[in-house]
Amino acid sequence: MATRLRPAADPLDDVSLPGWLYWHPAFFAAEQKAFLRAVPQIVCHQNEIAEPGAWRSLEFLGESIIVVRGDDGVVRAFANVCRHRGSRLLDGNGGCVRLLTCPYHAWSYARDGRLVAVPQSEDYPGLDRSRLGLKPVTLENWRGFLFVTLEPGAPTVADMMAPFEDEVAPYRFEELSAIGRVTLRSRDLNWKTIADNYSDALHIAVGHPGLTRLFGRGYRVEAHEHVDRMEGDLVERPSSNLSERAYQQMLPEAGHLPSSHRRKWLYFKLWPNTAFDIYPDQVDFMQFLPVTAEQTVIREISYALPDERRTMRASRYLNWRINRRVNAEDTALIGRVQQGMRSPSYEPGPLGRSEVALRSFAKKLRRLVPEARLPAPPAHWHVG
């Protein structure tokens, strides 16, 4: 009987990514070509655009995309670009329109993307309006959240989250409503610096004393094919911090959740740059939107099920206070990492066996962009 040989282990599996990947413009361009333009990006929740004409937008890799609900109730996604001379049609994060009218030459589009009005149309003999509607963008509705994809090639959100559907279902995502507004925080960081930190468990006990008081040492991380899953259960010991202690005491029973999740903070990071923070009291999404090799916009908003209990309203406020502090701690920590990645003295350090998410991320990146295996940029990848 023939002996089946196991594939040889990759020696780089035990090593973190080289620093130049976190600042080199040519590597950022390679990431865009290899996978960034193909991965689904969240725009909003379906309940934010419940009425005909309601729309939301997303800026991603130099593209502006809008999702808008048509008169027929169908939500569609389009490039936010006029078909005449390329002008942007809509400005801002969202609103409601009767027609999408270009501010440059007043070409107008219906809410389903059809070109319906062209001033001085006699100037364009033989104009076929049916061929000049807004350019559609691939749209996916996953449990009420609307995702767009610029190019094919990546798994759908439904495929990525398939292993966790039973766990997510009780949270009733489809019924969520926004309880805040979209916030955009620009950071002088590579997007991977933020993504690494999101899935890093070892820094919790060191850099987040508040989370450590809430979870003890019980924060856990799992790495799956397309998703990192993290969780922490609130401990019974009262925190010494006023906001944390009040949250522990006031968090009401979320009767729609199984008992195992009523005091659990649950996190999912979808490859490569979208995350869901799922709490008993609310649900947040967070994106790490790459702008340049060393600039990223963090985009986030909170949602919740209708619940007028005073204790629930207070818990949501306390959740915000706690996480505002966590965000400030992370901002300081990852700024230091970005500085280190720029240093010629940095060499990739070892990855521990418990750093499963970082190991998974690095392995996937090396597969998608083979230059990630190199200790330094290829000679022909000049900066500037």
UniProtKB/TrEMBL annotation:
Keyword field contains Transmembrane helix: no
Named cofactor requirement(s): Fe cation
Keywords: 2Fe-2S, Dioxygenase, Iron, Iron-sulfur, Metal-binding, Oxidoreductase
UniProt cross-references to CDD domains, sorted A to Z: RHO_alpha_C (cd00680), Rieske_RO_Alpha_N (cd03469)
GO molecular function, one term: dioxygenase activity
Rieske domain residues: 41-148
One Pfam family in the UniProt entry: Rieske
Key word ATP-binding present: no
InterPro entries, per the entry: Rieske_2Fe-2S, Rieske_2Fe-2S_sf, Ring_hydroxy_dOase_asu_C_dom, Rng_hydr_dOase-A
This protein's name: Aromatic ring-hydroxylating dioxygenase subunit alpha
